[in-house]
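Chain A, query sequence.
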Amino acid sequence: SRPWRWPGHRVDLRSHAWVYCYQRGLPVVNSLDREIHSLMQRVTETAILPRFRNLAEGEVEDKGGNDPVTIADKESEALLREGLSSIDNGIGFVGEEAAHANPSVLEQLGGPCWIVDPIDGTRNFAAGKPPFGILIARTEGGLAQSGWIYDCVTGRFCVAHRGNGAFVDGERITARPTGKTPPIAAISLIFMEEERRQTTRRHISPNYELVDIPFCAAEQYPRLGLGQNDVSIFERTLSWDHAAGALWLEEAGGKVARPDGIPYRVDEWDRKGLLGAASPRLWDDLADLYSQM
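Chain A, predicted structure.
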């Protein structure tokens, strides 16, 4: 593939890039997206789908706290690391499994790096059901500059580049609320302490129509942008879960921020609490309720 550069974090969105993608039927907006899409698709076909509903005994482990990892996660991350290194080996690499094995890997989050969740939604994958996907972000200065979300089952490909909008399968999208009254909320309680769960149920849940969470950020963020959910609360805010999706939703016109309004940073991985919404108004309403907890 031809070499590429990051020209001040801006992306080449000239018309010829669009002609290229439509002529070849690829859901991408520029040459880098073509490379990332090809890598995600290849890893899905090589390391992930062959193991789907086909995991042998001993190929699923618990990292602790009901957080599973499979042999497919590990193989996927190795292939993604190799592929991303061939695209740009001059920046760091923070993968979920690498960070679990060696927490010092997280020190790279303050500088330029790739951030990878090799299978987002491992809980679903290990149970033999969708959704699950791959998340990749390219970050600098603690902020995601580009993000890619790939649904391993449907092939949906979400792309965002800071300052250049959000795309789904090559089409620019604008986040849209559901229009429902009350708004639809997907609230993740699984990493909250019990007292906080009860407080959330009392102060926030009655104001929304609650729906099940998908246990997969690669699905939850698109739901917020594509008119399926209005708001979400995330307790755990690890960078591989949120870097790509938070950027994508923000670029689509939604809002993702800490409950106090501070923008999400990937190098604050140990800080709890993140609110996402299909619009700034919906975010403000949720943040107001959250502040009363």
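Confidence is low (pLDDT under 50) at residues 1-26. The first strand starts at residue 60 and ends at 62.
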